[in-house]
Amino acid sequence: MNHIFLFMKSLSSFFISFLYLIIIFSCGENHEATVLAKITEKKEEIKEIEIEIDSNEIIIQQIAQTYITNSNVSLRLKAFGDTNSETNLTIYTNKGKMVLSLYKNTPLHRANIVLLAKKKLFDNTLFYRVINNFMIQGGNSDNPLMRDKIDAIGRYRIPNEIQKSNIHKKGAIAMAVSPEEQSFGKKSSAINFYIIEGRKMEESYFKDNVGKIFTGKQLQVYMTIGGAPHLDGDYTVFGEVVSGISVLNRISNVKVDDYNWPQKEVIIDSIRAY
Q1: Each residue's pLDDT expressed in tens, for the chain with a length of 274 residues
Q2: Contact yes or no for 143/167 (Cβ under 8 A)
Q3: Alpha-carbon span 111 to 119, nearest angstrom
Q4: What is the CATH number assigned to the segment(s) 73-273?
Q5: 3-state DSSP call for residue 269?
Q6: What is the pTM of this model?
Q7: Domain spans of the chain?
């Protein structure tokens, strides 16, 4: 991109010189003052063009420094996380608000949700998928403006930060993973998140599901608080609800259609990080 701006600047300098020669050869000596005045005027016009070009170049460079892609996502999110230390979120909905604490052992996911909250990406989005006794999923919208917001930030996936200590207990927040990513890297969606409601598990469940290993404390959590243990190891859990579980329950119990889409919109008014 820089070579285009250099070419434009060289062209403007050439234009000034060329203009000077044309005017000199087309006028007599008595018109020298007029000629110089016209050249000065043109120089000022060229200067304005160069200033505009410089401004556009700065804007493009700024976009390039913040635009996130799959190739620079770790670098960009780490840099953002280093200077933005917020570890709490408040999700404001038309059903009430939930306060969440973000885990420090998933720094890229923490940085991502804080970044998008600060960019107001989630404002006026929806909990668009609700399955009672399982989870509520949100963070997106079919509003065309949503696509514009995403395009301005970048389209990317987050490298998984799956931690054995971060389980899908009731109130856990995690990022969705596309089916193709489940078999290749388990990279997270940048915007689609879900919050677990789950259910209390019987001890027999864990005896029948020997493929996953849980600590005694985790087993106790799943049997007394509840959750969705079958998701552990496949999705990055990066925080949990610390206030507003009743709001989670309220949303989980809304009436939905055959596609688990709420019959009445559950709106995310905003998400704020602090």
Answers
A1: 544 444 444 445 555 555 555 544 555 555 566 656 666 666 666 666 566 555 555 444 444 457 999 999 999 999 999 999 999 999 999 999 999 999 999 999 999 999 999 999 999 999 999 999 999 999 998 888 899 999 999 999 999 999 999 999 999 999 999 998 998 899 999 999 999 999 999 998 988 776 788 999 999 999 999 999 999 999 999 999 999 999 999 999 999 999 999 999 999 999 999 9
A2: no
A3: 12
A4: 2.40.100.10
A5: strand
A6: 0.77
A7: 2-66, 73-273
Residue 254, exposed/middle/buried by CB under 10 A (0-12, 13-18, 19+)? middle
Closest-CA residue to 222 (of 233, 210, 214, 234): 214
Residue 196 amino acid letter? I
**Cβ burial, residue 10 (10 Å; 0-12/13-18/19+):** exposed
What burial class does residue 53 get, using C-beta atoms within 10 Å of its C-beta: 0-12 exposed, 13-18 middle, 19+ buried?
A: middle
Token pair in block for residue 41: 């005027």
**Measured distance CA(164)–CA(224) in Å, rounded:** 19
